[in-house]
Design brief:
- With 225 residues, this protein is α+β, with helices and mostly antiparallel strands.
- The protein folds into 2 domains: 3-81, Glutaredoxin (3-Layer(aba) Sandwich), CATH 3.40.30.10; 92-206, Glutathione S-transferase Yfyf (Class Pi), Chain A, domain 2 (Up-down Bundle), CATH 1.20.1050.
- Helix content is 54%, strand content 9%.
- It has 8 helices and 4 strands.
- The protein has helices spanning 14-23, 43-46, 67-76, 92-122, 128-158, 171-185, 194-205, 207-215; strands spanning 3-8, 27-32, 56-59, 62-65.
- Helix 6 (171-185) packs across helix 7 (194-205).
- The protein is globular.
- The N and C termini lie far apart (37 Å).
- Residues 1-82 form the GST N-terminal domain.
- Keywords: Transferase.
- This is Glutathione S-transferase.
- Residues 88-223 form the GST C-terminal domain.
Length: 225
């Protein structure tokens, strides 16, 4: 039975489309537009994922949500794929680190940054100076130091390797794509990070990435460099 990727527009579920294209897997794709007023998932999507989170992968009677869970599920179905180095592979340690750093370290920091921006935008005008001050303080004391540290490690890795785990594309690069692109959009990845910038351009040039972007009609502006 063919798996179906339920992709929410402008969301991290793009990574699952890229994975499927990189695998050359047979899959169906269903794209959902966000609500024009709330920017949230539509009711039809929430019926699949109660939290409205993306992606949602349907395989027969099995429904899998959350990005890394979906990616692992698909890779379990393709055990021969080099996209997930197995135990004993010399790139395994680096692979695991970057595969989990995306959701465990980078995305939470970027999410906090995004939330502060949304709160400021929607707050009464007289509260905005206070919120800007709080956001700046959190940014300097929490977000910037942690992001600086992980980007330093990324630079060190990419100075020696083409991709994050080694010389070949892996699912670690796919999971990191949204986090790294988001860090660049937030001004955290700069010209001081030549390895990360090179990696981002290389990512976008990947043929499977390009096929995934075409299927999504190129709508995700986070990946426009």
């Amino acid at each position: 039975m063919t798996m179906t990727v339920h992709h929410l527009q402008y969301s991290q579920s793009f990574r699952l489309i890229w994975l499927m294209e990189a695998l050359g897997a047979d899959y169906d794709l269903k794209i959902y537009a966000r609500d024009s007023e709330t920017n949230l998932a539509p009711a039809e999507y929430k019926a699949l994922s109660p939290l409205g989170t993306a992606p949602v992968l349907v395989d027969g009677d099995t429904v899998v949500a959350e990005s890394n869970a979906s990616i692992d599920y698909v890779l379990d179905r393709h055990p021969e794929s080099p996209l997930r180095p197995g135990p004993g592979d010399p790139t395994r340690e680096r692979y695991l680190f970057w595969y989990h750093s995306a959701q465990g370290s980078m995305m939470p920091m970027l999410f906090v940054n995004t939330i502060f921006g949304m709160v400021q935008k929607n707050a009464p005008f007289f509260l905005r100076p206070l919120l800007r001050s709080v956001a700046a303080n959190v940014g300097e004391r929490l977000i910037k130091p942690r992001m600086t540290a992980i980007l330093k490690v990324a630079e060190e890795h990419l100075a020696e390797h083409k991709w994050l785990a080694g010389e070949e594309l892996t699912a670690a690069d796919i999971t990191m794509s949204y986090a790294m692109a988001g860090a660049r959009k937030a001004g955290l990845v700069t010209e001081a990070h030549p390895g990360c910038l090179r990696w981002l351009k290389q990512m976008e040039a990947d043929p499977a990435f390009q096929r995934a972007k075409a299927k999504d009609d190129g709508r995700d502006m986070l990946f426009s460099f």
